[in-house]
């Protein structure tokens, strides 16, 4: 089966569904990614701060797949922001992943309190793009005001903005800002299950009755319905799991369509409450960590 794709703003194609490894322990990463690749996934999303790029690289090596069959994405952590540091972050990432070129390299956070470092880091990404070392560049967790500041100081519009989006936190204004500038919205925690509502203020999306009813109508699971909701609204998704059956389930979403009323019903579940950290609280003092060499 040909995997549906989205076209990025520099004409690069990205699979509509990728496989995420956020919070996947390094010792479990190779097995999880291997299962994903065997199940049909061709986009793997990792990050320097996840400390599991080597496990991703090992799974890629073992897969036997040609490099041009894969779409590899990783992220530069705030500890490696700055022009020269970010160029070196690329070297660390490629060394761990065992590849020479990265398909999509993005900045992990906006770091608004030291945005001059963010600008310098993004300029390094622009250099890597111009040199052909990466195929596309982008950002993650950038709010509209961060994007405006970035546009004012750089020349390449990000290809993607990877952000928290799920039925209980849709970020409609940010989705609109991304679309206005031709930036693909890439949903992390697309079913709301990674860092969602740690204070217990709301139940899980997986038990939501509206989503459950829609799932029953289509003979699908709540997770599959949520992932389909994203795709039909033009968002790329990167669900994560270490459970083989769920890895397969999350990829089996191309054989049904939600109606306009069903999409609207899921939209209406938005609470406006973020599950992950507020982008403006991310500082090197609070969130900095050394990223090991390859």
From TrEMBL:
<dbReference type="GO" id="GO:0016616">
    <property type="term" value="F:oxidoreductase activity, acting on the CH-OH group of donors, NAD or NADP as acceptor"/>
</dbReference>
<dbReference type="InterPro" id="IPR036812">
    <property type="entry name" value="NAD(P)_OxRdtase_dom_sf"/>
</dbReference>
<feature type="active site" description="Proton donor">
    <location>
        <position position="50"/>
    </location>
</feature>
<keyword id="KW-0521">NADP</keyword>
<comment type="similarity">
    <text>Belongs to the aldo/keto reductase family.</text>
</comment>
<feature type="binding site">
    <location>
        <position position="108"/>
    </location>
    <ligand>
        <name>substrate</name>
    </ligand>
</feature>
<protein>
    <submittedName>
        <fullName>Aldo/keto reductase</fullName>
    </submittedName>
</protein>
<feature type="domain" description="NADP-dependent oxidoreductase">
    <location>
        <begin position="23"/>
        <end position="270"/>
    </location>
</feature>
<keyword id="KW-0560">Oxidoreductase</keyword>
<dbReference type="Pfam" id="PF00248">
    <property type="entry name" value="Aldo_ket_red"/>
</dbReference>
<dbReference type="InterPro" id="IPR020471">
    <property type="entry name" value="AKR"/>
</dbReference>
<feature type="site" description="Lowers pKa of active site Tyr">
    <location>
        <position position="75"/>
    </location>
</feature>
<dbReference type="InterPro" id="IPR018170">
    <property type="entry name" value="Aldo/ket_reductase_CS"/>
</dbReference>
<dbReference type="InterPro" id="IPR023210">
    <property type="entry name" value="NADP_OxRdtase_dom"/>
</dbReference>
